[in-house]
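To whoever picks this up:

The parser on our side crashed when reading a file containing two proteins. I've narrowed it down to the boundary between the first structure block and the second sequence. Both blocks are reproduced below exactly, byte for byte. First block:
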Amino acid sequence: MNSEIITERSQPMQILGYCVLWSALLCPHHVAAQDVLTWHNDNARTGQNLAERRLTPRNVNAEQFGKLFSIPVDGKVDAEPLYVHGLRIPGRGIHNVLYLATEHDSLYAFDADTGQQFWHVGLTKSGETPSDNRNCGQITPEIGITSTPVIDRQLGSHGIIYVIAMSKDQAGSYFQRLHAVDLETGKEELGAPVEIHAAFPGTGAASHDGMAIFDPKQYAERTALLLLNGVIYTTWTSHCDIDPYNGWVIGYNARTLKQAAVLDITPNGEEGAFWQSGAGPAADSQGNIYLLSANGTFDETLNAKGFPSRGNFGNSFLKLTRRSGKLSISDYFTMFNVTAENAVDDDMGSGGPMVLPDMKDATGKTWRLAVGAGKDLSIYVVSRDGMGKFSKRGNQAAYQELPHVMKQQYSRPIPAYYNGRLYYASTEDTLREFRFENARLIAEPESYTSRTFVYPGATPSISADGKQNGIVWVTENLNPAVLHAYAANDLGRELYNSDQATFGRDHFGAGNKFITPMIAHGKVYVGTTDGVGVFGLLRDSKP
């Protein structure tokens, strides 16, 4: 590993901690006050920080709120920034620390309140560079660290940040590696890095002699990492649908980095990868994983249990369960017209899944639900106790289908959840607030913005103080990018945007495709093509 360790000073601080979710079971280990240790705040992927007391609808405006500073880095920031509060930096005291990963295969640690750099490591081996774009414009001009890492504050000497990095050597070989980096020092721990390799029984497009083979050059890690029950889960997509490829889920023991789980969801077919517009796999408190697979082989002939007869689950809403060390698909939902959708690139895998909090219907029955949407413009709510499987006769077995509520073809719908509401801002569409009533999602939006969001839409994040002072944050993919803040209970009320101040005061860089705003301790962090913009209260920048 090429590394450069740099330390800076800032002021110590003390911060009271508690978990911000409705259930601590959905948190990564040791989540404290406003720590953001994984994509969209929690393993349910709600995108909500419910312990934000500084930012309110009263003070988030162009007079009181704006850009505090920008942090330049050496490549695109496609991963969501992560945040650890109250970390002791050797010889420097206690700090809030911001972790940034770039497509130049760099990982940085900065003081989250001042922007001063603590360390910077390059995650390539000697003689290597970040990967080229593999003749694909989806991740370009280079591929290094694309997916959002994940942090465990309890493991290693001082806590570990897990990162997938892609690289290329001088002989033209490509590598995907899992790194485990110490939060305080930037040094590799646990014997890292380990190269990603896998095989799975199958006779599909990427198989040899009865085994499907994971070829590192054919894949990118777009979806965020998931840490669940001591396993780091990685999920893989293609480069511009360049065959051959399949849909891989590969897990590693978080303590030993030994491979702990392998699953190919199209082992006897082709394609069916995972990209989810950068969203991470979701997980519930029972240890189940939820994923949306992209276009790929789906066997419409079912076995006696209602599962695809040859084990191919392309273009589906999947539930994965790990038992006795084996990862398998324990339930699923697939649209009745899956073959027609595959033919026109209407894949479910463009969106992100979310595990919803338990809800009661009008009779008092409790439902455990999950939600997902993709390019076919519909929202699907599924019961986690029976997702609906597949029927050529229609989607009636799904808990709820809201047909064609998205507005534009090829949508990239990533939800956020807050206070019984679901928020979506898909491609060339408005940001809209949908309300749950009696455990059913109402199709007509409760409110929506006057602004539509250009390709690929926007991924909303939420800040709130419990059930009050809710704010929805989204980034507009323009040059310069625009950060927007809306009142969570009325999206027609825009509180702030970074174009409002005169003379470009709050401009912070060019927009980035799937970036997710991150909010912690009164500040908002937004990735760009060459750094991160940091926003907060202009007269109250204390940590």
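<<boundary where parser fails>>
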Amino acid sequence: MNTNMNYKRASEWILAEEQFDPKLLGKTESIMCQGNGYMGVRAAAEEQYRDETRNCFVAGTFNKADETEVTELPNVADVINLELALDGEYFYLTEGKIRQYEKYINLKNGELVRSIGWESPRGRQYHLRFRRFVSLDHRHLIGQKITVQPLDGRTNIKIRTGIDATVSNSGAGHFQETQKRFYDNRYMQYLQATTDSKILFNINSVVSLKNKAGSCNQQAEIGMSRRRVFGDYEIEIAEGETLTIEKISTIYSTRDNDYRQVPREVFQQDTLAEIKRLEEHGYDRLFAGSAVCWDQYWERAGVEIACEDEMDQLAIRFSQYHLRVMTPFHDSRMNIGAKGLSGESYKGHTFWDTEVFMLPYFIFQFPEVAENLIKYRYNGMSGARVKAKAGGYDGAQYPWEAAWIEDGEVTPEYGDVDIVTGMPQKIWTGQIEQHITADVIYGLWQYYQMTGDKIFMEKYGFEMIFETASFWCSRFEEGNDGFLHINDVIGPDEYKEHVDDNAFTNYMAYWNVNKAIEVYEELEQSNAELWAELRAKLNLDAYYCRWKQDINRLYLPLPREDSVIAQDASYLTLQEIDLSKYKAQDFVLGIYRDYNAEQLNGIQVSKQADILILFFLLENYFIQEVKVANWNYYEPKTLHDSSLSLSTHCILANDIGKRRIAYELYQKLYHTDMGPYMNSSDSGIHAAAMGGIWEAVVLGFGGLRLLEDELRIRPALPDSWDRMVFSIIWRGTRLRIELTKGQVEIEIIGEQQSFEMIEICGTKYELKQYLVVKY
């Protein structure tokens, strides 16, 4: 397989590209993207290329480009652009000759580097080095440092760089140009406002030049044009001398809590003063501050694996790197998009991906961030109530795609073309993929069980549980068989639309309503004041009676004689075809080249894990025999055409003793983005797969699970792994956990916050300062 990727520096935390191909830019633009949860910057080059995608997104700043479109994260003005003319020849890697090339992201400190030996079309020799970071220390800051060294003679260098707002979201414009300024002929400031949501962005940049003699800052030749402000600089340097160009940029918006109500003049002057202060520090000092924050992150959350294949270790670091850069640690009004902040696909919207695939990472390692992500769902309750009411239901129904907390449902109505009809395909998920409502509550309950945070539950969580249970009971439909059913839905398997009694949906709804009954009865006994308050606010007396009456009548598909559970009411009756062609493909969605959505609805084929996810989320509901039978039935029919699928299969394979297959699935999982397939990530990183990698390692191979209020460890390390070390925070106590073949070692870091028990390989132990268990 042809690939430009080089994984030889895995032990150095380096993910590198060793060859430049202008037709394969999307791969590294996505997997080497940078960010800090406030903003994300795609790893496009400073110089521009035809097939590039230049993206910069700021979390939570959604806007509608047009009334006919749904809201999306707008592509903010580009600050990384920099044009070089070397003795009159423009620097482009598509021209001249590339003598040496490497582009890499350092996962340990977040720095993006390009090192290039370039021969110009006229034969001149240069060495160029581009460095860039998005600060973890100062969330508004982007730093760049470029060095240019002529190797065979004196060179005149011309530079043009600035703030370019001609970018768009695939042609959709989101901004009005508001104001552009040049202060002191050095400090660029550009203001742009979103067309519909009226968010004002304030972007600042300053450029500094240094040669052998030191600082040679010149007043720029100012340039302004429509939606652009830029500076032109010119300097001559000798052979072997190095010119250093530093560019410091900041991005702010009126969605920031600090600037929501600030007058524009104050906004402008504050950010101007800040860019001047930051310039004084310079790139190296600013980058060092960010690197310290990365060190702190890795010290708290890092996972160490002693293994034969260094890619296994690099993969978990890659996963955790992206989980940090895409997640808004700073604000509970925002969540994680399906592509993080790395690309336009899915428009920055939040799905169930967060609760099932990414939230567990934060629950176990950054509970304060998990709290923010769950509070985002509470903040979106008004939209969930509107959605429920619009469908004729009670309570709160969470949107399939969520954006700003006030937006409600934002799933587009139509998607890609139907290969049979040639018409746009109707997107049904926003209307009938409803399991997300229970998924949100599952994530909430996991957080509560892991942290014991009663204050959060009293302020937000119990209300969420009650309102979603009320939705489910209003959603149940009376059947002719005496049972209640959930008809006309899409389960996790999106190749099956308009099905009845999807097992995953029914079981999760059952769990959700039972949890509401349990919480209602517990509150009645332990917190009468809050119980009375919620009873009055939510009309709980009537709903509680309905929960109790309905829940035991809800139809739950049970195992057949062969222990297989029907994925939905019709799946087991559908036509079976030979899927080997599609299972063998190294790309996804290949089956759409032969079948449209309607045809897939009539075939026993699954896009992704569906019923198997139940055996992960609700594993205590099912015996081992059922898990094995359903794995054997459904895995051959699952194409893994969603990046959400492989982690579940990996974990379940471990649970049922298929350890070799589990390890193979783990490697396939991280190859989704990190592997050799050069077009797999063009539209952005697969955010859920990032969470899935951590889940596969810690929850799968590490065997760590939270089952209601019990923490359990049952390790199942791959044969090629000798040791794994990670840490978690359990009820306020930080635990360092080391797993080797046949031994679990747990050490409490700091003071123990509460007395807890932990189950290790079937035996319960008192959690002490230091615990070693042989198994």
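After patching the parser it read the second block fine. The longest strand covers residues 200-211. Residues 277 and 448 are 42 Å apart (CA to CA).
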